[in-house]
Design a protein that fits this description.
Elements lengths: L7 H7 L5 E2 L17 E2 L15 E5 L9 E5 L7 E6 L3 E6 L8 E5 L13 E6 L3 H4 L1 E8 L4 E8 L9 E12 L10 E3 L5 E4 L22 E5 L28 E4 L4 E6 L6 E5 L5 E7 L10 E2 L2 E2 L6 E2 L9 E4 L5 E4 L14 E8 L29 E4 L6 E2 L4 E4 L1
Antiparallel strand pairs: 1-24, 2-21, 3-25, 3-26, 4-5, 5-6, 6-7, 8-9, 9-10, 10-11, 12-13, 13-14, 14-15, 16-17, 17-18, 18-22, 19-20, 23-24, 24-27
């Protein structure tokens, strides 16, 4: 399946971006700190040495293929050995998982419904139903206009092995109004419990001007958890009975966790089932959170382990779950992202994870120079064709520097 061609070293980042940048963590990466009731704003935290692969070459994984503003790569839970590439303007492309594949075919085209005018708008997420092999159902997360909103919809293929999904089969599950064009989140993922998890950013602009992250009456700035298999009360979904805010007055019961700025990518650890989210920071740090039931991750009272805004000298951190890992934004050129690397395939010890900073200009998909021997790090110019990459030791036509961060739980 996917592992036959895509090395686990790259698997964590491929669904988000094809290039990485050097990052260094701040504070101790070995344990999650306790949450004090009041703490001064951090000024010059201690640097922690990192182990790294200082020079890793990235090679074309599928040399004959290119994509338009790639936002994700997904493998369905079936035995067809196909890969699905999501393009930001609104297409899902499918191709055989073979290095010499020549053609990617259109699987779903909803460009007429997707608004991708903003750098962070477009077709942002894809999730195959756990029973996709028999039901043929898949879910997408995209932004639409008039009014500006995020849409979670279900589509169906005529037959699970079909080469195309039926664009007319759209069934809208959830629509959330978006006040600004950025911070839309985008990840949509089925958990090991069979429920659908959806990450929404704080609504955008900068600094969460509407205070959505801490407002339990809205869905922005939250991790949601819903049951799409059982409609309830006129809604096309129901609320799992063990969601943390069920029955709480003034709170949306879809919420699983809150205080998030822009959880662009998240995934479940394949062994521990822990939900790991990469939350994009404002100006100071990027953070990794272990998302727990009912937890508050601080935004916009805190950014990472710091008080927010940065000029605040102290703040109340009571009740806030601090990130397990953070690193500085390196002048705003990096945004945290990536998916899990299964331990059985990872070249690291049990209980360790990897995170990498991802270049995010001019938009959140891959951006590469393709000239022979050009170093990708330090160059942020968008190129017309997006390519899928894999690590390699031999000389290749695309190279980049990757620094890896590791820590133990």
């Amino acid at each position: 399946m996917l592992s036959k061609l895509l090395s686990p070293v790259l698997a964590a980042a491929l669904a988000v971006s094809a290039i990485s940048c050097d990052i260094e963590p701040e504070g101790s990466p070995t344990a999650q700190p306790s949450s004090p009731t009041s703490t001064p704003a951090s000024s010059s935290p201690e640097r922690t040495p990192v182990s790294s692969l200082s020079k890793m070459r990235l090679l074309l994984a599928f040399p004959a293929l290119s994509f338009e503003r790639l936002t994700g790569l997904y493998e369905p839970p079936d035995e067809t050995d196909r890969l699905f590439a999501v393009e930001q303007p609104g297409r899902v492309m499918v191709f055989d998982n073979k290095e010499d594949v020549k053609v990617a075919r259109v699987f779903l085209d909803i460009r007429g419904r997707v608004n991708s005018t903003g750098q962070e708008e477009g077709l942002l997420g894809l999730a195959f139903a756990p029973d996709y092999a028999s039901s043929g159902q898949l879910y997408v997360n995209y932004t639409a206009s008039n009014p500006r909103r995020s849409v979670i919809s279900r589509f169906t293929v005529p037959a699970p092995s079909s080469g195309t999904a039926d664009a007319s089969s759209e069934f809208k599950i959830l629509e959330v109004m978006q006040p600004f064009s950025n911070h839309n989140g985008g990840q949509t993922l089925f958990g090991p419990d069979g429920y659908l998890y959806i990450g929404f950013g704080d609504g955008g602009s900068g600094g969460d001007p509407m205070g959505n992250g801490q407002n339990l009456s809205v869905l922005l700035g939250k991790m949601l958890r819903i049951n799409v298999n059982r409609p309830d009360g006129g809604r096309p979904y129901s609320i799992p009975p063990d969601n943390p805010f069920v029955g709480r007055t003034g709170a949306r019961e879809e919420i699983w966790a809150y205080g998030l700025r822009n959880p662009w990518r998240f995934s479940f650890d394949p062994e521990t089932k822990a939900l790991m989210a990469a939350d994009v920071g404002q100006n100071s740090v990027e953070e990794l959170d272990i998302i727990q039931k009912g937890a508050n991750y601080g935004w916009n009272r805190t950014e990472g382990r710091r008080c927010y805004p940065p000029n605040v000298t102290s703040c109340d951190m009571s009740g806030i779950t601090l990130p397990v890992f953070e690193y500085p934004t390196a002048g705003g050129n990096c945004a945290v992202g990536g998916n899990d690397v299964p331990r059985r395939r990872a070249a690291c010890s049990q209980g360790r994870l990897r995170i990498r900073g991802l270049l995010q200009r001019p938009y959140m998909g891959p951006s590469l120079r393709r000239e022979q021997g050009h170093r990708a790090d330090g160059d942020h110019k968008q190129q017309p064709a997006d390519k899928l990459l894999r690590p390699g030791q031999e000389r290749g036509d695309i190279r980049t520097r990757i620094r890896q961060q590791r820590w133990d739980f």
